[in-house]
User: Fold this.
Amino acid sequence: MRLSRYFLPVLKDNPAEAAIASHRLMLRAGMIRQSAAGIYSWLPLGFKVLRTLENIVHEEQQRAGHIPMLMPTLQTADLWRESGRYDDYGEEMLRIKDRHGRDLLYGPTNEELITDIFRNSVHSYKSLPLTLYHIQWKFRDERRPRFGVMRGREFFMKDGYNFNVDEAGALHAYNRHLVSYLRTYERMGLKAIPMQADTGPIGGEHSHEFLVLADTGESEVFYDSAVTDLSLGDRAVDFDSVEQCQGIFEEFTTPYARTDETHDEALFAKVPAERQRTARGIEVGQIFYFGTKYSESMKAKVSSPEGKEVPVHMGSHGIGVSRLIGALIEANHDDKGIIWPESVAPFKVGIVNLKQGGEATDPVCEMLYQGLQLCGLDPLYDDRDERAGTKFASMDLIGCPWRITVGPRGLKNGVVELTNRRTGESEEMSPEAALDCCTQIFSAV
Ligand code: ATP
Ligand code: MG
Assistant:
């Protein structure tokens, strides 16, 4: 993308309404604009990151064998009356009447709708196991929307639902989701720790939340520091293997890690003192196993292998896709701006032309721009007629992981400068070598 043709309305000053870094930086970097409290327009740069995260979530869900679909944002109230949650959900639910006076609602989650779809089409254990998911906007009329996309009212969420004939099958689905979520967050360059959680209004027996440690997080968390050393890495996972998923589940959930809602002082005291940690965290996902809670109330039954009618065992699983952008920035920024992990950066490489219109600089920038594009790296070429300081400040603010600076002085010696946004380290090299370097770095990501 050529910056002169892009829409990147950066702000020089800190917006007064933003209390935390990610909110401030998303506004300043021209990623979002508020439309109403907790409701945002996603400007091109923010939208690009949102799509990148959405794609990673899709890939990892499908790798685990889960099937994508799309349910609407508006739902009929009747289904929620059937499950008993229409009244329970309270003021967080946005209720709407259509022109015929029928009650609708903007979905805060989709257990009822998916259960309805399921019960109308699936009648035998032979169609199971099944896990369906979608990534769709949700609305929760939060009492205090705040921190930008971290606690919005309208937010983008992946929610998935598994259907199994028995508890054992549903527990495998639970473990499989935990493993696929670990992979998802790791791919985004994030460490998200699974912590035992309360089941809240969803109900059920088992639940884990995934928390990214950050001082600005809304949850208080207690954990054994050993849990932060764990990583899935690039080990091969067979998502159909009950043993392997169970093993990974145990590996990641055995060290003590809980939020204040489930914290147990006596258990925590058994963690060696030097490994006890108290911190704050951002919830970026949650998984639930709730057995037959919805299938009983909504009569979602299948015939079992023994020929009996049994309610299906279900779980639901959510990832806060839009909140993740806030979490990523909280975990990756400095006072100049955002520092995107390479896998989620909206533009992988920035090109700064120090002399726009220069006889030497322009052709080199063009060569780099075309070359990086050919290699599939999305470069952002700052081809505006601006001062060097302004160009560097924009690049630092929007956080391209790598920057190539092309100036007349360097080119006299045949070199450009390649700079790493995270470390600030720079190296001079020929333009061709800079192109090679970038290609190699990203072929490993
Ligand atoms: P919280 O405790 O933060 O209110 P929740 O437990 O009510 O969240 P879930 O029902 O578990 O939320 O939804 C799944 C995921 O959706 C959460 O883990 C979170 O990442 C995201 N999410 C929930 N509420 C919001 C919100 N208001 N704004 C942005 N993301 C949200
Ligand atoms: Mg939750």
Summary: Residues 209, 283, 286 surround magnesium ion (ligand 2) (CB under 6 Å). The longest strand covers residues 276-291.
